[in-house]
Design goal:
Blueprint (H helix, E strand, L loop, with lengths): L8 E6 L5 H13 L4 E6 L7 H9 L19 E2 L1 E4 L2 H5 L6 E2 L2 E3 L5 H5 L5 H20 L1 H5 L10
Parallel strand pairs: 1-2, 1-4, 3-5, 4-6
Helix pairs in contact: 1-5, 2-5
Length: 155
């Protein structure tokens, strides 16, 4: 299945497709569903992070129905823009034949920052901060994604 050609397609890529890429997909669908088609995928998917689901729900975005998908399991491989949201995915970004442009915009890793914290609220604060940073980035996405006819840029 290929999305309509008149709307840019964006893939948020992370290693585990459990947190940052899921938040980015959720924000993109919440903020720009009428302007672009958003997906998320992982180089090594490991399941949806419950804390990511919780903090997105606090912000009014339900990602509880998302699945943690490998790139090859997505319904399309044609993307106007692929955005790596973690350093590992950026450094080991697989070749995506249908990608016109690939960019990196890294965010801190909430699960890693939450390791060894004193309580759940402190852990969630890390997730909230990254959630809000991702939202600010995604708000600019329609301008960054450009028209579906954009050309591939060097990484």
């Amino acid at each position: 299945m290929t999305p309509p050609a008149d709307r840019p397609t964006v893939l948020f890529l992370c290693t585990g497709n459990s947190c940052r890429s899921q938040m980015a997909e959720g924000w993109a669908k919440h903020l720009h569903a009428d302007r672009l088609d958003a997906y998320s995928g992982g180089t090594h998917p490991k399941g949806l992070d419950p804390r990511a689901v919780a903090v997105m729900s606090e912000a009014g975005v339900d990602i509880s129905g998302h699945s943690s998908d490998a790139i090859g399991d997505l319904p399309t491989n044609e993307f106007d823009l692929v955005i790596t949201v973690c350093s590992s995915a950026h450094e080991h970004c697989p070749t995506i034949d249908g990608a016109k442009r690939i960019e990196h915009h890294g965010f801190d890793d909430p699960p890693r920052m939450a390791e060894g914290v004193c309580d759940e609220e402190e852990a969630l604060d890390h997730y909230r901060r990254v959630r809000d940073q991702i939202r600010a980035f995604v708000e600019t996405l329609p301008e960054r994604a450009g028209p579906a006819t954009s050309t591939r840029a060097d990484r």
